[in-house]
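> call design_seq(struct)
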C-alpha cells in the first residue's frame, strides 16, 4: 500500500510538470513529423550537394543549443523574479536577444566552414567553402530569428500565466527549431543553386558570404564592448557579453558532436531513404532526446540556482524523481512518435517495409536507452558546471543536446540493425 501511495504521491506532486511537459513533447513530436516529411522532399539536394545531411543536422542542433539555453536562462530568471518583458538596455531579455543573435551568426559561419571541410575530406565534396558559409549563415540566421521570436512569446505567455517554463521551453524550442531550420536551409540551398547558374556566380557567392561575415563581426564587436562594470540591482548591461564569452567555447566543442551525429546519419543516408518511416521518424526521435535533456537540465539548473538540489557524486532523491519524470514523459511521447510516423508513411504513400510493431519496438527500445543516458548526462553536466563556477543555464543544454544528438544517432542506428 505504501508503494501505491508513493506512486500516487509522485503523480500528484508532478502533475503540473507532466501536464505541461507531455503536452509540449507531443506538440513537438507532431511538429517534427513535418520536418521529417520535408527532409524526404529534399532527397535531390542531399545527393546534389555532398555534406548537406551534416549541415542540416548540425544547424538543427545548434538552433536548439543556442535558443534552448536562452529559454533555460529565462526560466531561471522567472523563478528568481529577475525577469521582465522589456527590451531596454540592461534587462535580461535584451541581453539574451543580443547574445543569441551574435551566437547564431558566429556559429553559422563556423558550421559552414567545418561542414565544407568534412564533406571535402570524407564525402567527395564538390562545393567551395563560400557556398557552405552562404547556405549555413543565411538559412541558420533566418531560422534563428523565427526561433528567437517564438522564445520571447513563450516567455511572455509564461510570465503572464505563471507557468514554470522549464517544463515547456526545451521541447517547444527544439520543435520550432526543426520546423523552421529545415525549410530555411532548403530555401537557402535553392537560392544558392539559382545563383550558381549565373555568370560570375563564384564572385557573387564570395561577396554575399563576406557581407554576412562582416555583419557578424560588427555585431559581435558591439556585444563584447559591454564590459563588466559595477552595476545596480537588476541592471544586466554586461550580461550579453558574459553569455557570448562563456557560451562560444562550449558551442564550438558541441559542434564537434553535432558534426559527428551528422556523419553517422550521412553514412546511413541510403538506408534511411529506402525505409521511408525511418527518415520521417529520425528528426522527431533526435528532437525528443534534445527536448527531454533540455527539459531536465532546465529543471536541474533552476534547482541549483534556488539551492534545492544537492550536488553529490551519486544523484540524490530529488534528482532521481526528475529521472522518473523523464522516463514517463519519454515512453508516452516515443510511442506517439512511432505511431504518427507510421501513419504519415501510409498517408503520403511512401514506401516502407517495416510493420507497425517493428516501428514501435525500434523507437521504444532506442528511446528507453537514450533516456537513461540523458538522465545521468544531464545531472553530471549540471553539477560539474556548478562546481567549476559556471552558469548551468549557459552550458548544460548545449552540451547535453549535442552529446545526445551523437549518442541518439548511434543508439537509433544500433537498434535499427537489430530489426533490419
Amino acid at each position: 500500500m505504501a508503494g501505491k501511495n508513493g506512486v500516487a504521491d509522485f503523480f500528484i506532486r508532478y502533475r503540473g510538470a507532466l501536464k505541461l511537459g507531455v503536452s509540449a513533447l507531443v506538440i513537438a513530436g507532431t511538429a517534427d513529423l513535418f520536418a521529417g516529411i520535408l527532409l524526404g522532399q529534399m532527397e535531390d539536394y542531399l545527393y546534389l550537394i555532398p555534406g548537406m545531411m551534416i549541415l542540416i543536422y548540425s544547424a538543427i542542433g545548434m538552433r536548439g543549443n543556442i535558443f534552448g539555453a536562452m529559454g533555460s536562462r529565462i526560466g531561471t530568471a522567472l523563478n528568481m523574479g529577475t525577469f521582465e518583458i522589456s527590451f531596454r538596455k540592461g534587462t535580461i531579455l535584451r541581453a539574451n536577444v543580443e547574445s543569441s543573435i551574435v551566437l547564431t551568426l558566429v556559429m553559422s559561419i563556423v558550421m559552414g566552414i567545418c561542414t565544407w571541410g568534412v564533406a571535402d575530406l570524407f564525402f567527395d565534396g564538390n562545393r567551395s567553402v563560400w557556398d557552405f558559409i552562404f547556405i549555413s549563415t543565411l538559412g541558420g540566421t533566418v531560422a534563428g530569428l523565427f526561433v528567437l521570436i517564438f522564445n520571447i512569446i513563450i516567455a511572455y505567455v509564461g510570465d503572464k500565466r505563471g507557468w514554470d517554463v522549464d517544463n515547456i521551453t526545451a521541447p517547444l524550442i527544439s520543435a520550432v527549431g526543426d520546423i523552421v531550420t529545415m525549410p530555411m536551409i532548403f530555401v537557402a540551398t535553392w537560392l544558392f543553386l539559382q545563383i550558381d547558374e549565373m555568370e560570375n556566380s563564384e564572385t557573387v557567392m564570395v561577396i554575399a558570404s563576406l557581407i554576412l561575415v562582416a555583419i557578424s563581426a560588427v555585431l559581435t564587436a558591439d556585444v563584447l564592448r559591454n564590459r563588466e562594470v559595477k552595476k545596480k540591482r537588476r541592471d544586466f548591461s554586461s550580461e550579453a557579453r558574459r553569455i557570448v564569452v562563456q557560451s562560444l567555447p562550449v558551442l564550438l566543442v558541441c559542434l564537434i558532436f553535432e558534426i559527428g551525429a551528422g556523419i553517422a546519419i550521412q553514412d546511413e543516408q541510403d538506408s534511411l531513404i529506402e525505409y521511408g518511416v525511418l527518415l520521417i521518424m529520425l528528426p522527431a526521435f533526435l528532437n525528443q532526446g534534445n527536448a527531454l535533456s533540455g527539459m531536465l537540465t532546465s529543471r536541474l539548473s533552476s534547482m541549483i540556482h534556488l539551492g534545492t538540489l544537492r550536488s553529490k557524486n551519486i544523484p540524490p532523491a530529488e534528482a532521481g524523481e526528475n529521472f522518473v519524470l523523464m522516463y514517463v514523459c519519454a515512453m508516452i511521447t516515443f510511442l506517439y512518435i512511432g505511431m504518427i510516423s507510421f501513419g504519415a508513411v501510409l498517408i503520403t504513400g511512401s514506401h516502407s517495409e517495416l510493420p507497425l510493431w517493428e516501428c514501435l519496438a525500434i523507437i521504444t527500445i532506442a528511446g528507453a536507452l537514450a533516456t537513461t543516458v540523458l538522465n545521468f548526462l544531464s545531472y553530471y553536466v549540471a553539477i560539474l558546471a556548478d562546481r567549476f563556477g559556471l552558469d548551468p543555464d549557459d552550458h548544460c543544454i548545449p552540451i547535453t543536446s549535442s552529446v545526445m544528438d551523437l549518442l541518439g544517432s548511434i543508439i537509433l542506428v544500433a537498434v535499427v540493425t537489430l530489426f533490419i
